[in-house]
């Protein structure tokens, strides 16, 4: 029987609501720490070094990751943070004060 490539349900991060061009292909994600705009950065578009606030390790060029900023509209470019996707998904399990 051929394998079916369907996305799994009920696993991983909560589904993102697409907001379109107004936020540069960002979706919203909600958590205990508030509402966030989250944009995926494919490896081919990751051209700089960043420091992940979740694990404090480098995100090297070519590594896919996410860019996150507050969804309340009060944030600026300086409030954007680059995270490894697993670190972002695990932020609720980390101790307070990491970001």
Structure notes:
- The protein is mainly beta and 99 residues long.
- The chain has a domain at 29-92.
- 5% of the residues lie in helices and 28% in strands.
- The chain is built from one helix and seven strands.
- It has one helix at residues 85-89; strands spanning 17-18, 27-31, 34-41, 50-51, 58-59, 65-70, 81-83.
- The strands form two sheets. It has a five-stranded antiparallel sheet with strand order 1-2-3-6-7. A two-stranded antiparallel sheet has the order 4-5.
- A hairpin with a 6-residue loop joins strand 4 (50-51) and strand 5.
- The longest helix has 5 residues, at 85-89.
- It is globular and about 45 Å long.
- The N and C termini lie far apart (47 Å).
- Residues 13-23 have low confidence and may be disordered.
- It comes from Amycolatopsis magusensis.
- Residues 1-34 are annotated as: Disordered.
- This is ATP/GTP-binding protein.
